[in-house]
Amino acid sequence: MRRAVLTAASTSALIVLLLSLKPHQPAGLSDAPAQAGVAPAPSPAGRPQRGGHPTDGTYTGAPISTRYGTVQVAATLKAGRLTAVKVLHAPSENGRDREIAGYAVPRLTREALSTHSARIDAVSGASYTSAGYVRSLQSALDRAGV
Predict the structure, then answer these.
(1) 141: which residues sit within 8 A by CB, 6+ positions away?
(2) How far apart are CA 54 and CA 82, in angstroms?
(3) Contacts (Cβ under 8 Å, ≥6 apart) of 83
(4) pTM over 0.90
(5) Coil, strand, or helix at residue 82?
(6) Contact between 110 and 45 (Cβ < 8 Å)
(7) Which tens digits make up the pLDDT trace of 88-99?
């Protein structure tokens, strides 16, 4: 009986302790500044459009550093809708990085174009690349004022 009480009390204390922990940053993405020498391109109008309709054109997203390399995309908008996404940088340090990017990037692009947003699911097995892609795409859309 004592063992059961002790086990229940320690389990309850452990659960309370775990629930009191604060979440940390998502794994794989660093808040380090963008690579030196890589400056994001300005929007066609020189600055993002806020409050009005987004200007048609191509907007370059911020380069996002991940554990396996930098991910950067450029988003093309027409009539306020995402019509194309071009990947400017993807992890390619070794064969495995190129393999992962080879299957993940087209899938991410298809999903972004079908939803016309950066609210897309990550590709299984390419978590870091997916997170970098989403953040870079969102920064491009933010510059466009979408």
Answers:
(1) 59, 61, 75, 82, 117, 118
(2) 11
(3) 76, 77, 113
(4) no
(5) strand
(6) no
(7) 999 999 999 999
